[in-house]
Specification:
The complex is a heterodimer of chains A (271) and B (400). Helix content of chain A is 15%, strand content 43%. Chain A contains four helices and 14 strands. Chain A starts with a helix and ends in a 17-residue tail after the last strand. By secondary structure, chain B is mainly beta. Chain B has one domain: Porin (Beta Barrel). Chain B has an 18-stranded antiparallel β-barrel. In chain B, strands 9-13-12 form a three-stranded mixed beta sheet, with no helix packed on it. The two termini of chain B are 28 Å apart. The chains are: A mainly beta (271), B mainly beta (400).
C-alpha cells in the first residue's frame, strides 16, 4: 500500500514537468544528444513503477498461417541505482509440456545478463549462458535481446527525423539506436517514439548487413492509474520469412508486494 | 443446486487443462497420459528375462493450488506406471505431495517432495536427498518422492535450508523377468541397514546456496543412510541383497558462468563404515548460439568423473575414472525440438554407455520422445550385465 502511494507521488511530480517546453528544448541539440534525450525521456516516463506483474499470450504464426500459443506471466522488479537493470521472472503455463518452466533474468547494462532457468521435471535450477542475444526466444520472432530490459546505456543514439505516421496521424521522433553490447544480431534499430506520450510505437530492426528484416509494432497503449504507459499488444514481423509473433498482455498490476528475494534463483523451485 | 452448478463449472474449467479461481487462490490441474514402447536389439542375456518388446502406460500429472498472496502452495503429483513385461516396473509413486508456506524470509515445506542439487550434466554426486527411480531410468534421471520437513531462510548472505527426512526410500530394481538388470536379480525384501530403525532411522541435511557474480555456489552436509546400496550375493548365491550403510557426507557444487562457457564442479567427501572416499565431477559446457542465424544452438559438454573408492567394496553405480562427452542441440523452433546425445566412458575398462535422446511437440498437446541406449564393453563390471540390452524407447505423451 505504501509503495502504491510512493509511486503515485513520484508520478505526480514527473507529470508536473512541462513536457511541451521540454520537447522544444531538444530541437537545437546535436542529433546524438537529441536522440539520447528522447530515449531518456521515454525511460524516465517509466521510472518509479517499482514492480509489476502481467499475464500474456504469445502467438507464433508461421508463413503458412499455422499458429502456436504460449501463455506466460512476467513479474518485473525495477532496478535500484544505475549499475544494474530490472529483474524479471517469466513463468510458462502452456504449451502443457513446458508448463512450470521459468526464466529468471537480472539485466545488466553492457555485460551479459545473469539468467537462471527452472526445469520443473527435474526441479532443477540451472544458471544459463546469456550470451545468446540474437537467437529466437522460445521459437518466436523475438530474439533474446529484444526481450531483455531496455536499459538506456545499451545503445548509442542519434536523432534522425520527426515524421507523421500515415495511418494514425501521430507525430513520431525517429531515433537510430546502435547496440553497444556484444553479439547483437543487429547493426541498428530505428525507434519511432511518440512525441506526445514518449513511448515507442514502432521499432525497425536492421541485420548485420544493414538490411531491414524485422518490424515491431507496439499497439493498444494504455495508461495505468499510477500513470505508467504499457503497450497491450506487440506484433513482431519477420520480413524475410513472413513469420510473425504477437504478444497480447492482460492487465498490468503495479506496486504489488514483490521484493529482491522474489527474484533470487532459490525462489525458482518454490513457485 | 447452485453449489453443484458452481462445482461442475470449476471441474469443467479445470479438466480441460485449466485454471480456476478456488478458495482464495488459483487451482490448476494438468493430467497427462503416456504410451511407450521399448525395443531391444538383442535376445536377453539372462534366464527369465522377457524377449524384445516392452510396452508401458503412464498416468501422471499435477494438481497445484496457490493462494492469491502467492505464499502458500499445495502441489500433488501422482505417478502410475503399468508395464507389459516386468512386474517391478508396474508401480505407483507419489512424486510430490507437499504443502509449502512462505512467511517473509522464512519458508516451510512438509510432505513428499523432490530436491535437485548440482550443476553437472552426466551425474550429480551432491544430489543426495531423493532416492533415484532406477526402475524408471537406470541413469539416475528420475527420482522417487521423499517425505520431508524443510525449513528455509533467505538472508543477504545466501539461502539456508535444513531438512529432516523421516522415512527412507529404498532403491527399486528391475524384476527377474525385466531387462536392464544385474546377472543375479536383486531381492529387495532382503535389504539390510547399518543404522537401527532401518527405514525409520531418519536423515538430516543442511544446505547453503548463494551466488557471487559469475559464481553459483552450493554447500551441503548430510547425515543418514546411503541412497546407494552395496549389493552382495545371498548365502545361496542366487540373489543379491542390498545393504544400506550409514553415510556422513559434505559437499560442494560450484558453477562459473562466463559468455558461452559454463564451468562446473561437484565434489563430496563421504564416510561410511568401511570407506572414506571422495566423488567428483568436473567439466564444462560450451554453447554455440544461433548458428549461422538459424536459431539453432549447439552445446558441447565434457565432464570427468572420479570416485576414490575401491571397486571391490563399492556399490553398483560407480564412476571411478570416467569421461563424459555430449552435445545438446536445441532447434528453438515452435515445437521446442531438442536432441541430447552423450557417452560415458570408463577410461580403464573402456566400458561405454551411449545415449541419444530427442523430443519434439506434435500439435499443442502431444510430446514425442525417442531415446536410444547402447552398452559397449563386456569387461566393465557396470556395463557387462547390460551388454545385450541396447534399446530404443519411443514415448508419446498426451497432455489434457
Amino acid at each position: 500500500m505504501i509503495s502504491r502511494v510512493v509511486t503515485a507521488l513520484s508520478m505526480a511530480s514527473a507529470l508536473a514537468l512541462p513536457l511541451g517546453a521540454f520537447a522544444e528544448d531538444l530541437a537545437g541539440l546535436p542529433p546524438e544528444e537529441r536522440g539520447y534525450r528522447i530515449m531518456e525521456r521515454s525511460d524516465l516516463s517509466d521510472a518509479g513503477f517499482g514492480s509489476s506483474t502481467v499475464d500474456l499470450t504469445m502467438t507464433l504464426t508461421d508463413g503458412s498461417g499455422r499458429s502456436t500459443v504460449r501463455n506466460m506471466q512476467i513479474d518485473t522488479l525495477e532496478k535500484r541505482g544505475n549499475g544494474n537493470g530490472d529483474k524479471s521472472l517469466t513463468r510458462f503455463f502452456s504449451p502443457p509440456d513446458v508448463e512450470g518452466t521459468a526464466l529468471l533474468s537480472h539485466a545488466r547494462i553492457l555485460d551479459p545478463d545473469d539468467q537462471w532457468l527452472y526445469l520443473p521435471g527435474l526441479r532443477r535450477v540451472k544458471r544459463i549462458s546469456s550470451s545468446n542475444k540474437s537467437g529466437p526466444f522460445v521459437g518466436s520472432e523475438f530474439a533474446f535481446e529484444d526481450l531483455t530490459a531496455n536499459e538506456l546505456g545499451k545503445y548509442a543514439y542519434r536523432y534522425l527525423e520527426t515524421v507523421q505516421d500515415a495511418a494514425t496521424g501521430l507525430e513520431l521522433d525517429v531515433v537510430e539506436c546502435k547496440p553497444l553490447y556484444e553479439r547483437s544480431g543487429y547493426s541498428k534499430l530505428h525507434c519511432y517514439v511518440d512525441a506526445e506520450i514518449h513511448q515507442s510505437r514502432r521499432v525497425e530492426f536492421f541485420d548485420r548487413g544493414g538490411r531491414l528484416f524485422k518490424t515491431l509494432e507496439l499497439l493498444d497503449y494504455r495508461q495505468s492509474t499510477d500513470g505508467f504507459w504499457r503497450a497491450h499488444e506487440q506484433v513482431m514481423t519477420n520480413h524475410l520469412t513472413g513469420k510473425a509473433t504477437t504478444l497480447r498482455f492482460g492487465e498490468f498490476e503495479f506496486g504489488i508486494s514483490l521484493n529482491q528475494r522474489d527474484f533470487e534463483p532459490s525462489i525458482l523451485d518454490r513457485l | 443446486m447452485h453449489r453443484f452448478v458452481h462445482l461442475t463449472t470449476v471441474l469443467a474449467a479445470v479438466l480441460s487443462h485449466g485454471t480456476a479461481a478456488l478458495a482464495g487462490g488459483t487451482f490448476r490441474i494438468s493430467p497427462e497420459v503416456a504410451f511407450e514402447g521399448r525395443f531391444f536389439g538383442e535376445d536377453p542375456l539372462f534366464e527369465g528375462q522377457f524377449d524384445r518388446v516392452q510396452g508401458g502406460l503412464i498416468l501422471s500429472g499435477d494438481l497445484r493450488w496457490t493462494n492469491d498472496d502467492r505464499n502458500v502452495r499445495v502441489l500433488i503429483e501422482p505417478y502410475l506406471r503399468l508395464d507389459s513385461q516386468d512386474d517391478a516396473r508396474t508401480y505407483f509413486d507419489l512424486r510430490e505431495g507437499s504443502v509449502f508456506y512462505r512467511a517473509g524470509d522464512w519458508d516451510f515445506l512438509a510432505g513428499v517432495s523432490q530436491v535437485f542439487w548440482g550443476v553437472a550434466e552426466s551425474r550429480n554426486v551432491v544430489d543426495i536427498i531423493n532416492q533415484f527411480d532406477t526402475v524408471e531410468d537406470f541413469d539416475e534421471g528420475e527420482k522417487l518422492g521423499q517425505p520431508m520437513l524443510r525449513v528455509g531462510r533467505a538472508t543477504d548472505y545466501g539461502t539456508f535450508e535444513a531438512y529432516y527426512l523421516p522415512f527412507f526410500r529404498e532403491r527399486e530394481f528391475a524384476g527377474v523377468n525385466g531387462r536392464l538388470r544385474t546377472a543375479l536379480p536383486v531381492d529387495e525384501d532382503a535389504a539390510t541397514f547399518e543404522r537401527e530403525g532401518e527405514v525409520f532411522a531418519g536423515d538430516f541435511a543442511l544446505r547453503y546456496s548463494n551466488r557471487f557474480d559469475a559464481f553459483d555456489l552450493g554447500l551441503h552436509a548430510f547425515y543418514g543412510t546411503s541412497r546407494n546400496p552395496v549389493l552382495t550375493p545371498d548365502a545361496a548365491g542366487t540373489e543379491l541383497a542390498p545393504f544400506y550403510p550409514r553415510l556422513v557426507q559434505g559437499g560442494v557444487d560450484l558453477q562459473y558462468t562466463s559468455g558461452p562457457w559454463l564451468l562446473k564442479l561437484e565434489a563430496v567427501g563421504a564416510d561410511t563404515a568401511n570407506d572414506t572416499f571422495a566423488s567428483t565431477v568436473a567439466g564444462f559446457e560450451y554453447t554455440f548460439f544461433d548458428i549461422r542465424r538459424s536459431g539453432v544452438d549447439v552445446g558441447l559438454i565434457g565432464e570427468y568423473l572420479h570416485d576414490s573408492r575401491d571397486q571391490a567394496r563399492a556399490p553398483v553405480t560407480l564412476f571411478e575414472n570416467d569421461m563424459f562427452v555430449g552435445t545438446r542441440i536445441a532447434l528453438n523452433d515452435t515445437q521446442d525440438t531438442e536432441i541430447l546425445a552423450g557417452a560415458i566412458v570408463d577410461t580403464e575398462t573402456s566400458g561405454t554407455v551411449a545415449s541419444v535422446e530427442a523430443q519434439t511437440r506434435l500439435g499443442d498437446r502431444f510430446l514425442l520422445e525417442a531415446e536410444a541406449r547402447l552398452f559397449i564393453g563386456s569387461d566393465d563390471p557396470l556395463v557387462e550385465p547390460f551388454q545385450d540390452d541396447d534399446h530404443l524407447l519411443l514415448r508419446l505423451t498426451y497432455f489434457f
